[in-house]
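Today's session is about reading a structure prediction critically. Students often jump straight to the picture, but the first step is always the sequence itself: look for stretches that repeat, for charged clusters, for runs of hydrophobic residues. Only then move on to the predicted structure, which in these notes is written as discrete structure tokens rather than atom positions. Here is the chain we will use throughout the hour.
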Amino acid sequence: MENTWFVFTSLEDPKEIKTASNYLDYRTWNGSLWTAEFKDGKFYHYPEGEKDKEHTDSILNYISDAGEKWQLRFDGTTFVHSLEGDASKSHTDDKIQYIGWDGRRWKGELLTLINHLHD
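Below is the predicted structure for this chain, in token form.
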């Protein structure tokens, strides 16, 4: 059994690190605020963090730290990023650099913990 967590670092102040979480608070292409939880190979999206309005998807549309529209999907253990959802402009990376709810620029990296590794 594995648990996947995001580890966050401020791109504006690299000494600032947020506590690891399985939730990512991000801005969508139209600027609205969403929370995404990654589990079981898909994203669980919550508008403004409201879990009663959840929907699942295999993609996440976000505003990058540079203000561009990117689409994220997960392939195995790697993020696949596509500029404006165009697969011909995609690249892989182990992190996401995005604008958070607070309007600040953040880097989120996935950390996978294996439960009962030494049982």
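Discussion point for the tutorial: The chain has one domain: 2-114.
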